[in-house]
Amino acid sequence: MDSGSISRLPVAPLPPSASRRLAAVGRDPINLHRALGHAPALLAPVLDLIHALRFDAKVARSLRELMICRIAQLEDSDYELAHHLPMAAESGLDEDQVASIAGWREAACFDERQRAVLGYAEHLGAGADRDDEALDKCFDPVEQTELTVTGATYIALARMLRALDVRIDASPLD
Q1: pTM of this prediction?
Q2: Measured torsion, CA atoms of residues 132, 137, 141, 143, in degrees rounded to the nearest 10
Q3: Start and end of every Carboxymuconolactone decarboxylase-like domain (predicted)?
Q4: Mean pLDDT estimate for the chain
């Protein structure tokens, strides 16, 4: 990868439809978008899914960011962590919580719902046993579905980022 590239592939022009979609939600393109720009027909639904998770989900943003950060740790995705650890803090997780995500089982700073999310992230991302009792106690079917789609989406994104060797943005925004 040369010093001017953003991934192992040459930079593709961002399709106008993607630029319009990002502008509609007040976003600038990031390296992930630019790397996926080689396949505009696939980039569009990826953006739609990411934006639906961000703007249309019932589950609290802090819980979704907790899920995303734990998935990123499990997937060893420095790119996702660079973008989502700051968003986790902005979403209301305190400094101790953000610092304790990897060691959440031993940390006293997480409540019951947060622990259910972290356990579910480990089920999705590492094959740990799923705690149906905790999930059912803390989340209704809609919320469980949103958490499932959030976790699975960010597993897929982490693997795309790794496969394309996408570099962390100079100033991560997402």
Answers
A1: 0.93
A2: -110
A3: 40-122
A4: 93
